[in-house]
Amino acid sequence: MSKNDNIQHTIDWTTVIYYLILVVMGWVSIYGASYEIDYEGSILSFDQRTGKQFVWIISALVLGGVILLLDYRIFNYFAYIIYGFVLLLLIVTIFVAPEIKGSRSWLVIGPVSFQPAELAKMATALALAKFMSRHNFVIKGWKDMVPLAIIVFIPFAFILLQKETGSALVFLAFLFMFYREGMNGIVLLLGSLAIVLFIVVIRFSIEIIGDNQGSWGIIAALGLIQLIQFLVSFKSQTHKKESLIIAGSTIAAGIIAVVVNNWIPVNYNYIAGAVVVLTALFWGITGLLRRYPSLSGVAAVALVSVVFIFASDIIFNKVLEPHHQIRIKVLLNMEDDLTGAGYNVNQSKIAIGSGGFTGKGFLNGTQTKLKYVPEQDTDFIFCTVGEEHGFIGSTLVLIIYWLLLMRLLTIAERQKEVFHRVYAYSVVSILFFHLMINVGMVLGIMPVIGIPLPFFSYGGSSLWGFTLLLFVLLRLDASRLERGR
Protein backbone atom coordinates (compact mmCIF):
# COMPACT_ATOMS: atom_id res chain seq x y z
CA MET A 1 0.00 0.00 0.00
CA SER A 2 1.37 3.45 -0.97
CA LYS A 3 1.98 6.28 1.48
CA ASN A 4 -0.92 8.24 0.00
CA ASP A 5 -3.25 5.30 0.60
CA ASN A 6 -2.02 5.11 4.20
CA ILE A 7 -2.80 8.77 4.77
CA GLN A 8 -6.22 8.40 3.22
CA HIS A 9 -7.14 5.61 5.62
CA THR A 10 -5.47 6.93 8.77
CA ILE A 11 -6.39 10.62 8.72
CA ASP A 12 -9.11 11.67 11.16
CA TRP A 13 -11.66 12.83 8.59
CA THR A 14 -14.18 13.85 11.25
CA THR A 15 -11.81 16.61 12.36
CA VAL A 16 -11.20 17.63 8.74
CA ILE A 17 -14.96 17.94 8.18
CA TYR A 18 -15.37 20.18 11.23
CA TYR A 19 -12.46 22.28 9.98
CA LEU A 20 -13.99 22.66 6.51
CA ILE A 21 -17.42 23.54 7.93
CA LEU A 22 -15.95 26.29 10.11
CA VAL A 23 -13.81 27.67 7.28
CA VAL A 24 -16.77 27.81 4.88
CA MET A 25 -19.07 29.32 7.51
CA GLY A 26 -16.38 31.88 8.28
CA TRP A 27 -16.02 32.76 4.59
CA VAL A 28 -19.78 33.24 4.25
CA SER A 29 -19.82 35.39 7.38
CA ILE A 30 -16.96 37.52 6.03
CA TYR A 31 -19.05 38.07 2.91
CA GLY A 32 -22.00 39.09 5.07
CA ALA A 33 -19.83 41.44 7.14
CA SER A 34 -18.12 43.13 4.17
CA TYR A 35 -21.07 43.11 1.73
CA GLU A 36 -22.02 46.47 0.26
CA ILE A 37 -25.51 46.99 -1.13
CA ASP A 38 -24.42 48.87 -4.26
CA TYR A 39 -21.56 46.48 -5.06
CA GLU A 40 -22.01 44.65 -8.37
CA GLY A 41 -18.84 42.60 -8.48
CA SER A 42 -18.32 38.89 -7.77
CA ILE A 43 -17.86 37.35 -4.35
CA LEU A 44 -14.49 36.12 -5.68
CA SER A 45 -13.35 39.58 -6.78
CA PHE A 46 -9.94 40.54 -5.37
CA ASP A 47 -11.12 44.05 -4.54
CA GLN A 48 -13.34 42.46 -1.87
CA ARG A 49 -12.17 40.69 1.27
CA THR A 50 -14.10 37.56 0.36
CA GLY A 51 -12.03 37.18 -2.81
CA LYS A 52 -8.79 37.58 -0.89
CA GLN A 53 -9.98 35.20 1.82
CA PHE A 54 -10.86 32.61 -0.83
CA VAL A 55 -7.23 32.65 -1.98
CA TRP A 56 -6.09 32.20 1.62
CA ILE A 57 -8.53 29.30 2.05
CA ILE A 58 -7.25 27.51 -1.05
CA SER A 59 -3.63 28.06 -0.04
CA ALA A 60 -4.42 26.84 3.51
CA LEU A 61 -5.94 23.64 2.11
CA VAL A 62 -2.85 23.10 -0.03
CA LEU A 63 -0.67 23.73 3.03
CA GLY A 64 -2.70 21.22 5.04
CA GLY A 65 -2.38 18.64 2.27
CA VAL A 66 1.38 19.09 2.10
CA ILE A 67 1.69 18.62 5.86
CA LEU A 68 -0.25 15.35 5.65
CA LEU A 69 2.21 14.05 3.05
CA LEU A 70 5.28 14.77 5.18
CA ASP A 71 6.98 12.18 7.35
CA TYR A 72 5.54 12.64 10.84
CA ARG A 73 9.01 12.29 12.41
CA ILE A 74 10.06 15.62 10.88
CA PHE A 75 8.09 17.55 13.48
CA ASN A 76 9.88 15.83 16.33
CA TYR A 77 13.36 15.98 14.82
CA PHE A 78 13.14 19.63 13.79
CA ALA A 79 11.00 20.95 16.66
CA TYR A 80 13.76 23.09 18.17
CA ILE A 81 14.90 24.32 14.76
CA ILE A 82 11.34 25.39 13.89
CA TYR A 83 11.07 27.09 17.28
CA GLY A 84 14.38 28.91 16.79
CA PHE A 85 13.47 30.02 13.26
CA VAL A 86 10.15 31.47 14.43
CA LEU A 87 11.89 33.28 17.32
CA LEU A 88 14.24 34.81 14.75
CA LEU A 89 11.22 35.97 12.73
CA LEU A 90 9.71 37.52 15.86
CA ILE A 91 12.96 39.41 16.58
CA VAL A 92 13.22 40.66 13.00
CA THR A 93 9.59 41.77 13.13
CA ILE A 94 10.25 44.01 16.13
CA PHE A 95 12.78 46.07 14.13
CA VAL A 96 11.58 46.01 10.52
CA ALA A 97 7.78 45.77 10.71
CA PRO A 98 5.84 48.97 9.94
CA GLU A 99 3.64 50.37 12.68
CA ILE A 100 0.02 49.34 12.08
CA LYS A 101 -2.63 50.40 14.60
CA GLY A 102 0.00 50.98 17.26
CA SER A 103 1.82 47.64 16.92
CA ARG A 104 4.78 46.33 14.94
CA SER A 105 3.74 42.75 14.32
CA TRP A 106 3.31 42.43 10.54
CA LEU A 107 6.04 41.53 8.07
CA VAL A 108 5.23 43.06 4.69
CA ILE A 109 6.52 41.20 1.64
CA GLY A 110 5.25 42.92 -1.50
CA PRO A 111 1.45 42.81 -1.52
CA VAL A 112 1.36 40.22 1.28
CA SER A 113 1.39 40.96 5.01
CA PHE A 114 2.06 38.18 7.49
CA GLN A 115 2.05 38.01 11.28
CA PRO A 116 4.81 35.70 12.63
CA ALA A 117 3.07 35.56 16.02
CA GLU A 118 0.55 33.16 14.47
CA LEU A 119 3.36 30.71 13.71
CA ALA A 120 4.78 31.06 17.22
CA LYS A 121 1.88 29.11 18.74
CA MET A 122 2.64 25.99 16.70
CA ALA A 123 6.40 26.37 17.11
CA THR A 124 6.12 26.73 20.89
CA ALA A 125 3.79 23.71 21.07
CA LEU A 126 6.35 21.63 19.15
CA ALA A 127 9.23 22.81 21.36
CA LEU A 128 7.31 21.99 24.53
CA ALA A 129 6.33 18.59 23.17
CA LYS A 130 9.96 17.88 22.27
CA PHE A 131 11.25 18.89 25.70
CA MET A 132 8.54 17.08 27.65
CA SER A 133 9.00 13.87 25.65
CA ARG A 134 12.52 13.45 26.98
CA HIS A 135 13.16 10.22 28.83
CA ASN A 136 11.71 10.16 32.34
CA PHE A 137 10.55 13.79 32.25
CA VAL A 138 7.64 14.37 34.60
CA ILE A 139 6.27 17.59 36.06
CA LYS A 140 6.80 17.02 39.76
CA GLY A 141 7.63 20.46 41.09
CA TRP A 142 8.79 23.98 40.36
CA LYS A 143 12.18 22.83 39.05
CA ASP A 144 10.48 20.97 36.23
CA MET A 145 8.32 24.00 35.40
CA VAL A 146 11.24 26.43 35.01
CA PRO A 147 12.48 25.25 31.56
CA LEU A 148 8.89 24.96 30.33
CA ALA A 149 8.15 28.49 31.50
CA ILE A 150 11.25 29.76 29.69
CA ILE A 151 10.18 28.11 26.42
CA VAL A 152 6.80 29.84 26.67
CA PHE A 153 8.10 33.15 28.00
CA ILE A 154 10.60 33.88 25.19
CA PRO A 155 8.04 34.15 22.34
CA PHE A 156 5.59 35.75 24.78
CA ALA A 157 8.13 38.51 25.51
CA PHE A 158 9.02 39.09 21.86
CA ILE A 159 5.35 39.38 20.88
CA LEU A 160 4.77 41.73 23.79
CA LEU A 161 7.62 43.91 22.50
CA GLN A 162 5.67 44.12 19.22
CA LYS A 163 2.85 45.64 21.31
CA GLU A 164 0.57 42.71 20.47
CA THR A 165 -0.78 42.11 23.97
CA GLY A 166 -3.66 39.91 22.80
CA SER A 167 -1.45 37.52 20.82
CA ALA A 168 0.99 37.34 23.74
CA LEU A 169 -1.71 36.47 26.27
CA VAL A 170 -2.69 33.45 24.16
CA PHE A 171 0.45 31.73 25.45
CA LEU A 172 -1.21 31.48 28.87
CA ALA A 173 -3.27 28.70 27.27
CA PHE A 174 -0.32 26.34 27.71
CA LEU A 175 -1.13 26.27 31.44
CA PHE A 176 -4.06 23.99 30.61
CA MET A 177 -1.71 21.54 28.91
CA PHE A 178 0.75 21.71 31.81
CA TYR A 179 -2.09 20.88 34.20
CA ARG A 180 -3.01 17.83 32.13
CA GLU A 181 0.61 16.70 32.15
CA GLY A 182 0.95 16.82 35.92
CA MET A 183 1.32 20.44 37.00
CA ASN A 184 -0.09 20.98 40.49
CA GLY A 185 -3.58 22.42 40.33
CA ILE A 186 -2.54 25.00 42.91
CA VAL A 187 -0.88 26.92 40.07
CA LEU A 188 -4.22 27.42 38.31
CA LEU A 189 -5.80 28.25 41.66
CA LEU A 190 -3.13 30.87 42.36
CA GLY A 191 -3.57 32.25 38.86
CA SER A 192 -7.30 32.60 39.49
CA LEU A 193 -6.57 34.30 42.82
CA ALA A 194 -4.24 36.75 41.08
CA ILE A 195 -6.98 37.64 38.57
CA VAL A 196 -9.52 38.17 41.38
CA LEU A 197 -7.10 40.35 43.36
CA PHE A 198 -6.26 42.42 40.30
CA ILE A 199 -9.93 42.97 39.50
CA VAL A 200 -10.76 43.92 43.08
CA VAL A 201 -7.84 46.36 43.31
CA ILE A 202 -8.65 48.05 40.00
CA ARG A 203 -12.44 47.97 40.27
CA PHE A 204 -12.52 49.73 43.63
CA SER A 205 -9.40 51.85 43.18
CA ILE A 206 -11.57 54.87 42.37
CA GLU A 207 -13.07 54.67 45.87
CA ILE A 208 -10.56 56.73 47.85
CA ILE A 209 -10.60 56.72 51.67
CA GLY A 210 -10.57 60.15 53.31
CA ASP A 211 -8.00 62.63 52.04
CA ASN A 212 -6.09 60.19 49.84
CA GLN A 213 -5.46 57.92 52.84
CA GLY A 214 -5.95 54.66 51.02
CA SER A 215 -7.98 52.83 48.41
CA TRP A 216 -10.94 50.57 49.09
CA GLY A 217 -9.65 48.34 46.29
CA ILE A 218 -6.37 47.62 48.08
CA ILE A 219 -8.12 47.30 51.46
CA ALA A 220 -10.64 44.81 50.04
CA ALA A 221 -7.91 42.72 48.36
CA LEU A 222 -5.82 42.62 51.54
CA GLY A 223 -8.94 41.70 53.52
CA LEU A 224 -9.51 38.76 51.17
CA ILE A 225 -5.96 37.48 51.79
CA GLN A 226 -6.41 37.87 55.55
CA LEU A 227 -9.69 35.93 55.33
CA ILE A 228 -7.95 33.10 53.45
CA GLN A 229 -5.26 32.92 56.15
CA PHE A 230 -7.94 32.75 58.83
CA LEU A 231 -9.91 29.97 57.09
CA VAL A 232 -6.83 27.81 56.52
CA SER A 233 -5.55 28.24 60.08
CA PHE A 234 -8.98 27.83 61.69
CA LYS A 235 -9.45 24.58 59.77
CA SER A 236 -6.46 23.17 61.65
CA GLN A 237 -7.65 21.55 64.88
CA THR A 238 -4.57 22.64 66.82
CA HIS A 239 -4.60 26.33 65.82
CA LYS A 240 -8.19 27.45 66.25
CA LYS A 241 -7.35 29.55 69.31
CA GLU A 242 -4.48 31.40 67.61
CA SER A 243 -6.57 32.02 64.49
CA LEU A 244 -9.38 33.55 66.57
CA ILE A 245 -6.89 35.73 68.45
CA ILE A 246 -5.40 36.99 65.20
CA ALA A 247 -8.89 37.64 63.77
CA GLY A 248 -9.75 39.70 66.83
CA SER A 249 -6.42 41.53 66.63
CA THR A 250 -7.09 42.38 62.98
CA ILE A 251 -10.44 43.95 63.86
CA ALA A 252 -8.86 45.77 66.78
CA ALA A 253 -6.08 47.16 64.58
CA GLY A 254 -8.68 48.53 62.18
CA ILE A 255 -10.61 50.22 64.98
CA ILE A 256 -7.44 51.70 66.49
CA ALA A 257 -6.37 53.04 63.07
CA VAL A 258 -9.74 54.77 62.63
CA VAL A 259 -9.52 56.32 66.13
CA VAL A 260 -5.91 57.47 65.73
CA ASN A 261 -6.80 59.02 62.37
CA ASN A 262 -8.83 61.64 64.25
CA TRP A 263 -5.54 63.17 65.47
CA ILE A 264 -2.83 61.82 63.17
CA PRO A 265 -3.41 61.09 59.43
CA VAL A 266 -3.19 57.34 58.79
CA ASN A 267 -2.63 55.53 55.49
CA TYR A 268 -5.01 52.60 55.75
CA ASN A 269 -3.31 50.74 52.88
CA TYR A 270 -0.06 50.46 54.83
CA ILE A 271 -1.82 49.52 58.06
CA ALA A 272 -3.76 46.72 56.35
CA GLY A 273 -0.61 45.57 54.52
CA ALA A 274 1.35 45.43 57.75
CA VAL A 275 -1.36 43.39 59.49
CA VAL A 276 -1.42 40.84 56.65
CA VAL A 277 2.41 40.61 56.57
CA LEU A 278 2.70 40.14 60.35
CA THR A 279 -0.01 37.47 60.26
CA ALA A 280 1.76 35.70 57.40
CA LEU A 281 5.09 35.78 59.23
CA PHE A 282 3.48 34.31 62.35
CA TRP A 283 1.85 31.45 60.45
CA GLY A 284 4.97 30.89 58.35
CA ILE A 285 7.19 30.48 61.40
CA THR A 286 4.54 28.39 63.17
CA GLY A 287 4.21 26.13 60.15
CA LEU A 288 7.97 25.59 59.95
CA LEU A 289 8.42 24.92 63.67
CA ARG A 290 5.43 22.60 64.00
CA ARG A 291 5.77 21.06 60.53
CA TYR A 292 2.46 22.19 59.09
CA PRO A 293 3.25 22.77 55.39
CA SER A 294 -0.25 24.09 54.70
CA LEU A 295 0.32 27.01 57.10
CA SER A 296 3.75 27.76 55.64
CA GLY A 297 2.30 27.57 52.15
CA VAL A 298 -0.58 29.95 52.80
CA ALA A 299 1.82 32.33 54.56
CA ALA A 300 4.09 32.39 51.50
CA VAL A 301 1.10 33.01 49.23
CA ALA A 302 -0.04 35.84 51.51
CA LEU A 303 3.36 37.56 51.42
CA VAL A 304 3.55 37.32 47.62
CA SER A 305 -0.05 38.52 47.37
CA VAL A 306 0.71 41.66 49.38
CA VAL A 307 3.45 42.56 46.89
CA PHE A 308 1.16 41.71 43.97
CA ILE A 309 -1.70 43.83 45.34
CA PHE A 310 0.41 46.98 45.69
CA ALA A 311 2.15 46.25 42.36
CA SER A 312 -1.20 45.87 40.56
CA ASP A 313 -2.16 49.42 41.40
CA ILE A 314 1.22 50.71 40.19
CA ILE A 315 1.22 48.59 37.01
CA PHE A 316 -2.29 49.65 36.06
CA ASN A 317 -1.68 53.37 36.56
CA LYS A 318 1.99 53.65 35.58
CA VAL A 319 2.82 50.78 33.17
CA LEU A 320 -0.26 49.98 31.09
CA GLU A 321 -0.96 52.11 28.04
CA PRO A 322 -3.94 54.50 28.34
CA HIS A 323 -5.99 52.50 25.81
CA HIS A 324 -5.40 49.31 27.83
CA GLN A 325 -6.53 51.09 30.99
CA ILE A 326 -9.71 52.32 29.31
CA ARG A 327 -10.55 48.84 27.99
CA ILE A 328 -10.21 47.32 31.45
CA LYS A 329 -12.27 50.12 33.02
CA VAL A 330 -15.02 49.65 30.44
CA LEU A 331 -15.05 45.89 31.06
CA LEU A 332 -15.32 46.45 34.82
CA ASN A 333 -18.09 49.03 34.35
CA MET A 334 -15.88 51.77 35.77
CA GLU A 335 -16.50 53.87 32.66
CA ASP A 336 -19.02 53.74 29.82
CA ASP A 337 -17.00 55.41 27.06
CA LEU A 338 -19.55 54.37 24.42
CA THR A 339 -17.84 56.55 21.81
CA GLY A 340 -14.30 55.43 22.63
CA ALA A 341 -12.87 52.17 23.93
CA GLY A 342 -16.34 50.80 24.69
CA TYR A 343 -17.72 51.59 21.25
CA ASN A 344 -16.80 48.27 19.60
CA VAL A 345 -18.31 46.15 22.36
CA ASN A 346 -21.43 48.27 22.64
CA GLN A 347 -22.12 48.11 18.89
CA SER A 348 -21.34 44.40 18.88
CA LYS A 349 -23.89 43.74 21.64
CA ILE A 350 -26.46 45.85 19.77
CA ALA A 351 -25.85 43.79 16.61
CA ILE A 352 -26.15 40.46 18.41
CA GLY A 353 -29.20 41.55 20.39
CA SER A 354 -30.97 42.85 17.27
CA GLY A 355 -30.62 39.43 15.66
CA GLY A 356 -33.10 37.95 18.13
CA PHE A 357 -33.85 34.25 18.04
CA THR A 358 -33.69 33.55 14.30
CA GLY A 359 -31.73 36.55 13.00
CA LYS A 360 -32.45 39.16 10.35
CA GLY A 361 -31.40 36.90 7.51
CA PHE A 362 -28.29 36.58 5.39
CA LEU A 363 -27.04 40.00 4.15
CA ASN A 364 -29.86 41.76 6.02
CA GLY A 365 -27.95 42.89 9.10
CA THR A 366 -28.25 46.65 9.49
CA GLN A 367 -25.48 47.07 12.05
CA THR A 368 -22.99 45.26 9.86
CA LYS A 369 -24.15 46.69 6.53
CA LEU A 370 -23.91 50.24 7.85
CA LYS A 371 -20.44 49.46 9.28
CA TYR A 372 -21.34 50.36 12.85
CA VAL A 373 -19.15 47.57 14.23
CA PRO A 374 -15.40 48.10 13.67
CA GLU A 375 -13.37 44.98 12.79
CA GLN A 376 -16.65 43.16 12.11
CA ASP A 377 -15.06 40.68 9.72
CA THR A 378 -11.96 40.00 11.86
CA ASP A 379 -11.98 40.13 15.67
CA PHE A 380 -15.74 40.86 15.89
CA ILE A 381 -16.89 38.40 13.19
CA PHE A 382 -19.12 36.58 15.68
CA CYS A 383 -21.45 39.60 15.94
CA THR A 384 -22.22 39.18 12.22
CA VAL A 385 -23.37 35.63 12.91
CA GLY A 386 -25.52 36.83 15.81
CA GLU A 387 -27.20 39.61 13.83
CA GLU A 388 -27.86 37.69 10.61
CA HIS A 389 -28.60 34.25 12.05
CA GLY A 390 -29.68 35.06 15.61
CA PHE A 391 -29.49 32.82 18.65
CA ILE A 392 -29.99 29.68 16.55
CA GLY A 393 -27.10 30.44 14.20
CA SER A 394 -24.78 31.52 16.99
CA THR A 395 -25.57 28.37 18.97
CA LEU A 396 -24.93 26.21 15.89
CA VAL A 397 -21.49 27.76 15.41
CA LEU A 398 -20.61 27.20 19.08
CA ILE A 399 -21.83 23.59 18.88
CA ILE A 400 -19.52 22.93 15.93
CA TYR A 401 -16.60 24.41 17.85
CA TRP A 402 -17.55 22.25 20.84
CA LEU A 403 -17.67 19.14 18.65
CA LEU A 404 -14.24 20.00 17.23
CA LEU A 405 -12.74 20.49 20.69
CA MET A 406 -14.27 17.24 21.96
CA ARG A 407 -12.89 15.42 18.94
CA LEU A 408 -9.43 16.88 19.52
CA LEU A 409 -9.59 15.80 23.17
CA THR A 410 -10.36 12.28 21.99
CA ILE A 411 -7.39 12.43 19.63
CA ALA A 412 -5.15 13.70 22.44
CA GLU A 413 -6.19 10.95 24.83
CA ARG A 414 -5.51 8.14 22.37
CA GLN A 415 -1.91 9.18 21.69
CA LYS A 416 0.62 6.70 23.02
CA GLU A 417 3.69 8.88 22.53
CA VAL A 418 4.32 11.77 24.90
CA PHE A 419 5.38 14.10 22.07
CA HIS A 420 2.09 13.56 20.24
CA ARG A 421 -0.05 13.85 23.37
CA VAL A 422 1.59 17.06 24.61
CA TYR A 423 1.27 18.67 21.20
CA ALA A 424 -2.37 17.57 20.95
CA TYR A 425 -3.30 19.11 24.30
CA SER A 426 -1.46 22.28 23.33
CA VAL A 427 -3.64 22.55 20.23
CA VAL A 428 -6.82 22.02 22.25
CA SER A 429 -5.72 24.61 24.82
CA ILE A 430 -4.90 27.26 22.22
CA LEU A 431 -8.14 26.80 20.28
CA PHE A 432 -10.21 26.83 23.49
CA PHE A 433 -8.49 30.01 24.71
CA HIS A 434 -9.10 31.78 21.40
CA LEU A 435 -12.75 30.72 21.32
CA MET A 436 -13.40 31.67 24.96
CA ILE A 437 -11.75 35.10 24.74
CA ASN A 438 -13.06 36.05 21.29
CA VAL A 439 -16.70 35.15 21.91
CA GLY A 440 -16.53 36.60 25.43
CA MET A 441 -15.00 39.77 24.02
CA VAL A 442 -17.82 40.18 21.47
CA LEU A 443 -20.42 39.62 24.21
CA GLY A 444 -18.74 42.13 26.50
CA ILE A 445 -17.78 39.68 29.25
CA MET A 446 -14.07 39.49 28.37
CA PRO A 447 -11.55 42.27 27.77
CA VAL A 448 -11.03 43.40 24.17
CA ILE A 449 -7.54 42.11 23.44
CA GLY A 450 -7.84 41.60 19.70
CA ILE A 451 -7.49 37.91 18.91
CA PRO A 452 -9.24 36.18 15.97
CA LEU A 453 -11.92 33.51 16.03
CA PRO A 454 -10.20 30.29 14.80
CA PHE A 455 -10.87 29.41 11.13
CA PHE A 456 -13.58 32.09 11.05
CA SER A 457 -12.04 35.56 11.12
CA TYR A 458 -10.74 37.25 7.99
CA GLY A 459 -6.99 37.08 7.53
CA GLY A 460 -4.45 34.80 5.94
CA SER A 461 -2.03 34.81 8.88
CA SER A 462 -4.56 33.47 11.37
CA LEU A 463 -5.99 30.92 8.91
CA TRP A 464 -2.54 29.64 8.01
CA GLY A 465 -1.50 29.58 11.66
CA PHE A 466 -4.53 27.60 12.81
CA THR A 467 -4.33 25.29 9.78
CA LEU A 468 -0.69 24.49 10.54
CA LEU A 469 -1.53 23.94 14.18
CA LEU A 470 -4.37 21.53 13.38
CA PHE A 471 -2.93 19.62 10.44
CA VAL A 472 0.37 18.90 12.19
CA LEU A 473 -1.74 17.24 14.87
CA LEU A 474 -3.69 15.29 12.25
CA ARG A 475 -0.40 14.10 10.73
CA LEU A 476 0.92 12.99 14.13
CA ASP A 477 -2.35 11.22 14.90
CA ALA A 478 -2.33 9.44 11.54
CA SER A 479 1.10 7.98 12.33
CA ARG A 480 -0.47 6.13 15.26
CA LEU A 481 -2.28 3.83 12.85
CA GLU A 482 0.49 3.76 10.24
CA ARG A 483 2.89 2.24 12.74
CA GLY A 484 0.35 -0.44 13.51
CA ARG A 485 0.07 -1.61 9.90
Account of the protein in words:
The protein has 20 helices and two strands. It is mainly α and 485 residues long. It folds into two domains: 3-187 and 334-482, no CATH class; 207-329, no CATH class. The chain has a two-stranded antiparallel sheet with strand order 1-2. A hairpin with a 2-residue loop joins strand 1 (107-109) and strand 2. Helix 3 packs parallel to helix 20 (460-482) and helix 9 (174-180) packs across helix 19. The longest helix has 33 residues, at 381-413. The protein starts with a helix and ends with a helix. The relative contact order is 0.14.
- Strand tally, please? 2
Number of helices: 20
Nearest-integer average pLDDT? 85
> Can you tell me the overall shape?
globular
Please give the alpha-carbon distance between the first and last residues.
10 Å
Q: Major sheet: order of its strands?
A: 1-2
How is this fold's topology laid out?
Blueprint: H1 3-10, H2 13-34, H3 49-69, H4 73-77, H5 79-96, E1 107-109, E2 112-114, H6 117-132, H7 142-161, H8 165-169, H9 174-180, H10 186-203, H11 216-235, H12 240-260, H13 268-290, H14 293-319, H15 322-331, H16 343-354, H17 366-369, H18 381-413, H19 418-443, H20 460-482
Antiparallel strand pairs: 1-2
Helix pairs in contact: 2-3, 2-18, 3-20, 5-6, 5-7, 6-7, 6-19, 6-20, 9-19, 10-11, 10-14, 11-12, 11-13, 11-14, 12-13, 13-14, 16-18, 18-19, 19-20
Brief overview, please?
The chain is mainly alpha-helical and 485 residues long. The chain contains 20 helices and two strands.
Question: What keywords describe this structure?
Answer:
2 domains, 70% helix, mainly alpha, 1% strand, two-stranded antiparallel sheet, 485 residues
